[in-house]
Amino acid sequence: MPRLSEVIAALDALWPPERAESWDAVGTVCGDPDAEVGRVLFAVDPVQEIADEAIALGADLLVTHHPLYLRGTTTVAAGHFKGRVVHDLIKHDVALHVAHTNADTADPGVSDALAGALDLRVTGPLVPENNLGRICELDHPETLAEFAARAAKRLPATAQGIRVAGDPDMILRRVAVSGGSGDSLFDAVRAAGVDAFLTADLRHHPVSEATQRATRSAGPLGLVDAAHWATEWPWCEQAAAQLDEISDRHGWDLRVHVSKTVTDPWSFHHTSPGAPN
Ligand SMILES: [Zn+2]
Question: Which residues bind a divalent metal cation per the record (predicted)?
Answer without folding.
Answer: 65-66, 104, 228, 232
